[in-house]
Amino acid sequence: MSKQFDVVVIGAGPGGYIAAIRASQLGMSVACVDAWSNHLGEAAPGGTCTNVGCIPSKALLQSSEHFEQAGSHFKDHGIDIDNISLNLKKLISRKETVVKQNNEGILYLFKKNNISFFHGFGSFSGQTEGGWCIKINDSSNTDIIAKHVVIATGSSAREFPNLPFDEKLVLSNDGALRLDSVPKKLGVIGGGVIGLEMGSVWRRLGSNVTVLEAMPNFLMSADSQIAREALKVFTKQGLDIQVGVNIDSIKIIGDSVSINYKDSKDVHKELIVDKLIVSIGRLPYTDKLNYSLVGLKVDDKGFIGVDADCRTNLPNVWAIGDVVRGPMLAHKAEEEGVAVAERIAGQHGHVNFDTIPSVIYTSPEIAWVGKNEQQLKQDGRDFRVGTFPFLANGRARALGDTTGFVKVIADTKTDEVLGVHIIGPMASELISEAVTIMEFRGSAEDIARICHAHPTLSESLKEAALAVDKRSLNF
Question: Domain FAD/NAD(P)-binding spans what residues (predicted)?
């Protein structure tokens, strides 16, 4: 006899496991199904984020940043280190340890919250009076039934046309995280978050990195002033970033990859690299759901159609995270997971798409929330801008990292904060204050009147808010 649950969540990534935990907290019987395995074949919940995305990339970024600091910047602090060397095997091993700790943490949370976990692929097999039938492709082909189903199966890397990932020469984010040697020449197609982060990791460790971006301008999703500063800094660091590129062909030649392309001036060029990272976006992972059997509406790109509350066209079937509209961000999936669990319980879940922050964990870090200047100009909105450089911040000077600035954009009439954009040290942490202010529809004056501890990087946000009214105190 099939086991019966109030809620079955398919997928244990950031959206899925959080949805399962919140549903359990609200008194429902919950199961979570996830197929991800580690190299030993053990269950590895956490999805792309934990296994081959957010967590391992940040581990490598931290390790590579330490390596670069030790080799190039420790001497500025009076720390002399001779004959610095890289133990790449140990560096990758540390990353794997961090990933495993996160996997085990999620399994512990399932146990703590009385969530039944099934290791295997979950797919629809029909409908009964008790709800939806879910078949789990595990060692025993388990069948379970749930009144509500939450689909949180995430996404997978998009391949370049006619160039499949072999994870040896042509790498997705997965292969880029587990190279066993530092490539002399590394190519990156796509100058977005993944491309810049992975390019930064391997540049710090010794690679000659070239980033090829199709868009005419660098980081077009970011504020243009931030993007210009980022391009200047990354170029100075040694990343060769080319925009407006049109790729003609990519060929595997022995142990190398040849990329033939036209640059922004329509000049034909060839780039030969030892490894090629392809980071041109991600596609929703819905192929194995058997959705056609039950009539679940999925578009030609694989996205599941949902309303504003994440309801699909089927009763009591919900979808969240990368498989639905909106930004493919772990924290967006988490917020939707909580909201859906609360809606199932009859509460009013909350997700504000206007205050979802974006972060790029390069050095300097880049983070923003709300609208940028070019968007507001397109909307015809009257606004004022205040900026403050980290060069004038005492804590940044003490850290030895004064790159970048904070930018606050506020409505001209109401002073409501419309967007905050940061490039500089710890931008990923600093952006949270801006998110909070905007969630409460606060003003630049609100930020300016709040006491910030001294000396801290967060004072730069206060100073930028003061600058909106042209009364910055330290610049």
Answer: 5-337
